[in-house]
Amino acid sequence: GRSSGGALAPVSSFIGGVAAQEALKAVTGKFTPLRQFLYWDALEALPAPPPAAAECAPRGDRYDGIRAVIGEAALDALRRGRYFVVGAGALGCEWLKCLALLGAATDGGVVHVTDMDQIERSNLNRQFLFRPSDLGAPKSTAAAAKCAQLNPAFRAVAHEAAVGAPGSPFDDAFWGGLDGVINALDNVAARLHVDRMCVLHRKPLLESGTAGTKANTQVVLPGLTASYGASTDPPDDDIPVCTVKAFPYVLEHCVQWARDLFEAQFVQAPRRVNAWAARPDALAAELGQRGAGAGGTG
Fold this sequence. Notes:
44% of the residues lie in helices and 11% in strands. The protein contains 9 helices and 6 strands, in the order H-H-E-H-E-H-E-H-E-H-E-E-H-H-H. The radius of gyration is 25 Å and the shape is globular.
């Protein structure tokens, strides 16, 4: 049947991610594994109306699995499309990989990708297109090169310019020539700028973002849905603990890091010393309990 012969990179990525997560749960024993059936679908990705059987017939190339699901017409639109991926970090790498494996920009189309950052060692654990040999290289250039290895026909143009900066190559003519935009940014100001440009030029936008284990996506279609800037997310006062400890890169993170350090050295430690000095018998009892507990579990 058509479904058994189909293969879409984003679907495979999702299934692989769930499988890897369950494997980590089993190995570490830290989280509760799924002990039930898991149902997930992406029926909204199917063309409407469904393509005819002739459009889904195999043609002996690497895109037969995609063609079996979406048909030749949709595949041809992907291959000839002009897209803009804003950001080449963790999400940007995933979007670029999926575009390359789906055959986007492989027959007259192009994918523009921009990111001003260079690859750092802390990026390697989640931005999977990068390797230690890429340290110091521009993210956009390295990501485009890796995707060309995944699919040699994939055409990507790398930029290192900010989307809203004066004199950037992203002028009105650039935005007007696009077929779609994908946001993979880490700051609200740039997201709002991209959203405004997509509204102005009536371009579809896929908005996405992550924060720790949380993530969001929003599909913005001109004239059909609300734009990203039309709503405001509730304020999130939580600061990622891992970011504060390992890589505090914004003012709020640095302030929280300093507060945690001050609390540990000048509040908690003296408080424990004063408590023990005031009640030395309690200290002896506590140490005795700890020793007994350690001996009982050996």
